[in-house]
Write a structure and sequence with these properties.
This protein has about 180 residues and is α+β, with helices and mostly antiparallel strands. Helices cover about 40% and strands about 15% of the residues. The chain contains 6 helices and 6 strands, in the order αββαββββαααα. This is Reverse transcriptase domain-containing protein.
């Protein structure tokens, strides 16, 4: 089968090819900070006035042009827009458009690399979700394994529950 573009998923060279293929994604971004981890990319900029918002939209347009040049397509439905403010969440922020012309949805919370970020900067929602998931996993362990001996239970707890609680905890509970 002839592959004309893209990176084959699951191949040994796939990650390296992906890095090579996407290494220039931030080359023409002039006004914003671009952060990428594997196939997740965030464009960040402090917005003080309408000119800052226009510069961010300009950088988004630059990304769309990069995608066109590289025969790639962004999934516009996955674009999310969130505004961090000291005043709390607001829906009155500038509007940004995706490559297809649709407006990028304003969100109160976004999930990035497994962490739920809130527009007011707190992690209450994330901590609630992690707690529910850890309790559910602990319940599954108790229902699935008959033993109550301390050594295997501690091993199960450390391998099945603790990683859920500790994932990115330096971010949401640094001390």
């Amino acid at each position: 089968m002839l592959v004309t573009s893209g990176v084959p998923q699951g191949s040994v060279l796939g990650p390296l090819l992906f890095i090579i293929y996407n290494c220039d994604i931030d080359q023409h971004i002039q006004h914003s900070f671009l952060s990428s981890f594997t196939d997740d990319t965030c464009v960040l900029r402090e917005i003080s006035d309408t000119s800052d918002a226009e510069l961010l939209q300009e950088d988004l347009e630059t990304l769309y042009q990069w995608a066109d040049r590289n025969n790639m397509m962004f999934n516009d439905s996955k674009f999310e827009h969130m505004q961090y403010t000291v005043k709390g969440c607001s829906n009155s922020s500038p509007k940004y458009t995706a490559n297809d012309g649709s407006q990028i949805c304003i969100k109160q919370e976004v999930r990035d690399l497994g962490v739920t970020l809130s527009c007011d900067g707190n992690f209450t929602s994330h901590i609630t979700k992690v707690t529910i998931k850890a309790r559910s996993q602990a319940g599954w362990v108790l229902r699935t394994f008959c033993t109550r001996k301390p050594e295997p239970m501690l091993t199960l707890y450390k391998t099945m529950v603790v990683p859920l609680l500790e994932y990115c905890c330096q971010l949401w509970s640094p001390w």
